[in-house]
Amino acid sequence: MRKQIAAANWKMNLTLTEGEALLDAISAKPHTLAPNQEAIYAVPFPYISMAQAKVGAKTNVYVAAQNCSNKLSGAYTGEVSVTMLQSMCVKYVVIGHSERREYFNESNELLAQKVDACLENQTTPIFCCGESLAIREAGTQNDYVAGQLTESLFHLSETAISHVVIAYEPIWAIGTGKTASSDQAQEMHAFIRSHIASKYGASVADSISILYGGSVKSANAVEIFGQPDVDGGLVGGASLIADKFVAIINALKK
Ligand code: PEP
């Protein structure tokens, strides 16, 4: 059974005190995670220890990083390596968020190196892909997303790709309040799964969790997560409000 995941992406938001208060407020609200469900908090690097302390030993709850370097160590001032994150027991890293692709010029080739760095150090990449509005309007979104997957993931072995979580995030839906319809999400998720199956076979493709991201809210999460190929969400804005994120966790499929 595929994992169903509600992943919070705090981006560059909240002070330390606000982050602590948010995690306390989420803990205080009723939510339970079934054995196949996880909640993940992708927090800014300096808040990782705080978030781990807050999350404690809660079952199926993890703290993630929002990025890592493609290098493992050395003279790269300001960078954070996956080996550093691993030494802090961080299990997940978001790789290739569209904001990193756009503002920090991260290419598919660089992201392939980051994915390798994660997998070689027992860390699960949450690999983001997704098209711009211009690509969606031109109707070439499937080719575009297939290219992102092929160039950053298709060098992996069958075993290695099975350890990747994919997040499909259409750029036109991120932080815009414009969500893909549940049909659009399902169509792309099914396409992503079929593209993976074309190289690795159906059983590998069926085992990979594919999250949807792009203005997920408490009001649309049940419908989007209810789609057969949608295995939860990567959530920005709504993850910063305790009530909303708890409702999103509670919307995960059992
Ligand atoms: C994101 O940060 O990955 C995201 C999807 O943001 P939002 O939910 O605010 O659209």
Describe this structure in words.
Helix 1 (16-28) packs parallel to helix 2, helix 1 (16-28) crosses helix 12 and helix 7 (141-153) crosses helix 9 (182-200). The protein has 254 residues and is of the alpha/beta class. Helix 2 links the parallel strand 2 and strand 3. The chain has helices at residues 16-28, 48-55, 82-87, 98-103, 108-119, 133-138, 141-153, 158-161, 182-200, 202-207, 218-225, 242-250, and strands at residues 4-9, 37-42, 61-65, 92-95, 124-129, 165-168, 210-213, 232-235. The chain has one domain (4-250): TIM Barrel, CATH 3.20.20. The protein is built from twelve helices and eight strands. The model has no long low-confidence stretch (mean pLDDT 97). The longest helix is centred in the last third of the chain and has 19 residues, at 182-200. It has an eight-stranded parallel beta barrel with strand order 1-2-3-4-5-6-7-8, surrounded by six helices. The chain binds phosphoenolpyruvate. Phosphoenolpyruvate (PEP) binds next to strand 8.
